[in-house]
């Protein structure tokens, strides 16, 4: 079910999946920032299309959403943004269901997915769309060959987990802890148990929520994750640059450096895991 | 139960559009709703009704309004929810949900509030039932509704200001959902209206339907007949659904949901502003705060900033069941503007000695403009009293030329 680009991105087992809100704080700078992530080692990039009511986001990404909307971001501009990007890694669109649902002339998710496919996007993450409501989007994704990533929370068990795993493709987004997005120092807590519950499923497991350093990335990958998703720690760099009035090139350089730190951490984690894997 | 399990859909509306972290809590709540509310397990509903009577002061009367009846030359009855403890219908729901949280073994309550009516009702219920409570309230609303902030604090609740966005109800709802997603294992979210993911719209309706259950009996006793029409104001729609629920199957009873027409029904797409809160009358289908319903949104699907002189109606969405009943033709969605609502506020205060909430005044404004289509016997739900609105009424009246209003200049600038 997964499309080949995402499969390839997770093939070496330590994928680095950064997130930025498209258009934060403005269209041109944001293009530079996303491209910097690729130079820093991104394997997949999650691009946020901002929605006015982002109920799953913590303060850091909420503020990014506000900056991006104030900078004029819309679904139409988002697609222009994707078109203008010069990156080779797969792009996954992260947004809320209402924007997908309203796009185009017919109601329902199909026109949005069709447009995304035309521009070469690889898939979607939709935080307010549980598996129960996802059939129409799943069908459109299947029609156009896109992946639909679902989030699995520490509280997701039993039947719910089954239902999600039937729908998921590309990778599963393992939410490292309860709550909303945001960088935190404690990342390990609930992650191991979640990865354990998912071990029987043959789909890449990318862990997100709270990862902000190379050391975090290392521990998460060493603990069995196939990839790490990092949003707030990168958005913080954009926010700080914006507040200080730093030029886009400077901010892009910081993002690239941070990306490299995270990617290197993920690879160290993989290296440490390898010998153990051979023993078992 | 022998009935097939209700899936939370009202036609295409409703559903459960929430982050995955909340889904187990929603499923737990669904289960509790079915057991305690629908099946009265452990006598939950008996205890709820007893507490509504002893603590809340139910039943509230249905009163014959003599001077309004004379003015409109038809029988006008008032369902006096303004006489419920706290001064509004909000306690019906807050008490029900806080009690349910107790039965579920939850240890903490969170709630959002716009004007502060739901927040104060939840704070009262939480104090009454000895539950710690935190209320999220937009910073702008905190400044507009200071007395309600004090009331919540007096009852021992914490009030958390929400500074994101415009700082009103929709931001407060989003923020409360975030708190719930973080503390889902020991916390219950007491949502304030018939909105949000299933089972909230059905459950809040059930807690509020005591309004129409009583009113139906009281009309039979007092008027010897059911009303020809029932009027209730509609923001999110909890007093509306409460006033309509038991009449929905009575074909001869017309149901009118009166929305806030604000300053105009025209929309400024560019600025993302709808200067009204008339989502049933002018909105379109979309997904917000966990449900598919009618919304004020731009053509991309971004939610617009709504407006009403009454902050309790100032919301860009509406309950999914109400949206469905309007589409089905069972409920008529109508609206009146800020000016008409203010005028009606003064009229009811003078004619009946009832100072209504500005929300409630919308229903009376519709009665004034369209009394003839409403039939011989009209029931209006007085969803709340207007003490909380005095400051804004003075300000808003001073800006307008309302001939029946008393001279407000002496009061302008606050008490």
Automatic annotation (TrEMBL), chain A:
One of its GO terms (cellular component) is cytosol. InterPro entries: Aldolase_TIM, RibuloseP-bd_barrel, Trp_synthase_alpha_AS, Trp_synthase_suA. Gene3D superfamilies: Aldolase class I (3.20.20.70). It is an enzyme of class 4 (lyase). The active site is at 46 (proton acceptor), 57 (proton acceptor). Keywords: Amino-acid biosynthesis, Aromatic amino acid biosynthesis, Lyase, Tryptophan biosynthesis. It comes from the Archaea. Its EC number is 4.2.1.20. It catalyses: (1S,2R)-1-C-(indol-3-yl)glycerol 3-phosphate + L-serine = D-glyceraldehyde 3-phosphate + L-tryptophan + H2O. One of its GO terms (molecular function) is tryptophan synthase activity. Tetramer of two alpha and two beta chains. Belongs to the TrpA family. The alpha subunit is responsible for the aldol cleavage of indoleglycerol phosphate to indole and glyceraldehyde 3-phosphate. This is Tryptophan synthase alpha chain. It comes from Halogeometricum limi. The gene is trpA.
UniProtKB/TrEMBL annotation, chain B:
Pathway: Amino-acid biosynthesis; L-tryptophan biosynthesis; L-tryptophan from chorismate: step 5/5. It holds the Pfam family PALP. Gene3D superfamilies: 3.40.50.1100. The modification N6-(pyridoxal phosphate)lysine is found at residue 90. The keyword Nucleotide-binding does not apply. CDD domains: Trp-synth_B. Residues 56-384 form the Tryptophan synthase beta chain-like PALP domain. One of its GO terms (cellular component) is cytoplasm. Tetramer of two alpha and two beta chains. It is an enzyme of class 4 (lyase). This is Tryptophan synthase beta chain. The gene is trpB. Its cofactor is pyridoxal 5'-phosphate. GO terms for molecular function: tryptophan synthase activity. Belongs to the TrpB family. The beta subunit is responsible for the synthesis of L-tryptophan from indole and L-serine. Its EC number is 4.2.1.20. Keywords: Amino-acid biosynthesis, Aromatic amino acid biosynthesis, Lyase, Pyridoxal phosphate, Tryptophan biosynthesis. NCBIfam families: trpB (TIGR00263). It comes from the Archaea. It catalyses: (1S,2R)-1-C-(indol-3-yl)glycerol 3-phosphate + L-serine = D-glyceraldehyde 3-phosphate + L-tryptophan + H2O. It comes from Halogeometricum limi.
